[in-house]
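To whoever picks this up:

The parser on our side crashed when reading a file containing two proteins. I've narrowed it down to the boundary between the first structure block and the second sequence. Both blocks are reproduced below exactly, byte for byte. First block:
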Amino acid sequence: MNLNPVKLSLIDASWLFLALSFLGAFCAHRVWGQYEGRGLYMLFQDLIRYGKTKQTLKRHEWLRVFDVPKRWFWHFYCLSVCWNGLLLVWYLNFTCGHQSLPSWLMGIIDVLAGVPSPDSQVPQLSTLLVQLLLWVHSLRRLMECLFVSVFSEGTIHLVQYVFGVGYYVALGLTVLCVDRVEKGSTKMYFLHSILPLLYDVLIFVLFLLGAGTLLSQLDWFHVAGVLLFTAASLLQHQSTVLLARLRTGKSGAVETLAHRVPEGGLFELVSCPHYFAELLIYISLALIFAGLSLTWGLVVLYVFFNQSLAAQLCHDLYLTKYESYPRHRKAFIPFIF
């Protein structure tokens, strides 16, 4: 039997490296307790912690030089709204046949995807949906950072800030890399068999818009992905609101910046339902790609390890700070972890 080795593109190798790095960080955090207080251990903890989980860390003064306010999280989402919105507009123009993607952008995708740009390429519904939902997700998170969340004096490391800026730029490019190798479906049996009238109306509307080719690709996994994305987004928003209410009164005015035990919603089962919702959002986007994209699968793997580490740090803080903290709560995934 001949087994062909999987050849990873540059973008695939990058996401795999990030996923394994955070897996390694998670494992190191669990086993390095005996080195607490030493220089290397403190530097490691300073790099993986942020916000409330960093405030309890006894750090050297020189490490505080690299602190930036956690409330600057909104910078990430503002950048994402602008950058991924621009990519979305360019792809919409490409979809409607007005113009192709910029040559410099195509060159970047060539290098990252490891696949040369074809002479002609059919626009993919999966790509358009993922771009749109990523933009919606970024816009919602931006609005929550600006108008819902109540930030204390918590900080993040400068390295984390720079990483966050690059992350959302890379995420938009990753979607286009998936598009480069995505074959797409040319059949739409699911919607046509269940909602024939809606199908005919949409075909007519998209024909007028010059995007009828996209609807012919619509399949059950697109619908399922959008539904899961919506449910996960609502869960994350609810969790964000519940966290904010821990610091505000009935009038909505901020009363305290102290940390309290969150209650209600999925907080009754896990310490960090907003992190769990983040994972579900990325899984929903993988579903829109029919679950067949290796590249996006590696993105989901990275998000899983990244959010697992953040959730574990948060869960450990709750357990040590609050003696009455519910012991049945898991850190990240209900009933599992």
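<<boundary where parser fails>>
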Amino acid sequence: MAVTFHDLKSASGLKKLDEFLLPRSYITGYQASKDDIAVHAELSGPPSSDYVNVSRWYNHIEALLRLSGVSGEGQGVQVTGSATVFEEVPASPPIADTKASAAVDDDDDDVDLFGEETEEEKKAAEERAAAVKASGKKKESGKSSVLLDVKPWDDETDMKKLEEAVRSVKMDGLLWGASKLVPVGYGIKKLQIMMTIVDDLVSVDNLIEDHLTSEPANEHIQSCDIVAFNKI
């Protein structure tokens, strides 16, 4: 079933969205999709920092739209104009919601996860929200945009496989962005690629030494250089 939100320009609508995003990174599923773009478009601008989870999600979607775009199809989302509570049934709910979902009667067509919260779950959610809010500013300022030069061994190196080797590196806090091939000389080209990192989670030096210039990626990659490094 499609997720439904009501009046996201009102304080009550933003509060419900903030609660909804507390255990989630995206509106539906486990990757950014058209559902995120649809909700993002309903917001007139960056939300107040009082809405910690909405701000986290909004800044992440903004970064994706600037760097690499969003291609996921999503599962469907609706946004209406009335300032009333919303009900939703996540197609792929987080593990933390499983117990609440199991407690709902089989006769119910819709699941109101917020209405089924126990006191313990509510207290845990409040503690988590307080912790996220306390560190929210630090996390938002702890991101960097990095431009890398990735050089092949010679003009016979398959640059498509080289780029695949680069993008195959997956780490928490690492997001690969746009790329292009730049001529170096003598028929050799290098790969220039953008990435966004969370400073506390990703060390660029370790990324290069332990992943990009070590096996198996070094079959295609001779060396990597940092061209630009900017705080976001």
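After patching the parser it read the second block fine. The chain has seven helices and six strands. Residues 96 and 121 are 9 Å apart (CA to CA).
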